[in-house]
Amino acid sequence: MFIEQGIKPENKFWRYIVGSIFIIIASFLGQTPLLGALYYDTFINGKPYPNSNDDIMRFFEPNLTLFLILISFVFAMLGIFFVVRYLHNQTMLSITTSRTKIDWKRVLFSFSIWAIFTIISTLAFYLFNPTDFVINFKPIPFVILVLISTILIPIQTSTEEYIFRGYLMQGFANLAKNKWFPLIITSVIFGAMHISNPEVSKMGNIILVYYIGTGLLLGIITMMDEGIELALGFHAANNLVSALLVTSDWSAFQTHSIFKDISQPSAGLDVIFPIVIIYPILLFIFSRKYKWTDWKEKLTGKIA
């Protein structure tokens, strides 16, 4: 069973606290290239130092900014590997899946179904609300964006999944000895992690409902499927396709995407609709394909 794979007598919860601190430090070290570039342009080239996160996002050319931001996740992933291997004496496979090897067909299926949905829904929004968008496509910057995104965004999303649905889910299972607490707490922390995103300041804290709901979806499919493969595919499709299709002045990533959303941001049905309609449909598709059973035990049961 996936969540039980990290439960050992010597795997005390304090190790997960130490491990999390180490991963955070590794992520901070990964921000050194961004800080170095900022200091170079301010002290050497005389540009004014950015005063806010929004200013930082607009300080460099968008592709360079995206590259510098995503590099930190490479360091964080290395931190995860080090902590899992040497602090917990586990393998990366043990926080990936309960299967004997990673099921890449699951990753691909989840990626494909969510990528197709994202593309169709984005085009529908564009067709029904054309005044809310402008064509942002520039061939050469877009090709560079594709190269950066296809390499680094899957690393970014996989890092988040390994932290929340792999490492911390097993960690909180060690603490609580049940399944519902790791599911809830990792979803809340995942949502709270996005509180500094610019769309939160534009739309208000109500947008956190969407982030927490997404974390809950990813936690449910991880626990029901006994591994994070489906979560890996979903998260990669969500961030990658979005980065390539649409940007805006208030989104987390400023990119040379195909479209630019120029509408006034507001949180309404677009926040609730995925949580109450789309995500349950996705769960139904996954459950039918992979024949999930015993939902209550897998999501709320005790751990011996």
TrEMBL record:
Superkingdom of source: Bacteria
Residue span(s) of domain CAAX prenyl protease 2/Lysostaphin resistance protein A-like: 142-241
GO molecular function annotation: endopeptidase activity
Keywords, in A-Z order: Membrane, Transmembrane, Transmembrane helix
Family matches, as InterPro entries: Rce1/LyrA-like_dom
UniProt xrefs under Pfam families: Rce1-like
GO biological process: CAAX-box protein maturation
Transmembrane segments: 16-40, 64-87, 107-128, 140-159, 180-197, 203-223, 230-247, 267-286
Name listed for the protein in its UniProt record: CAAX prenyl protease 2/Lysostaphin resistance protein A-like domain-containing protein
Organism: Flavobacterium urumqiense
Lineage, top ranks: Bacteria, Pseudomonadati, Bacteroidota, Flavobacteriia, Flavobacteriales
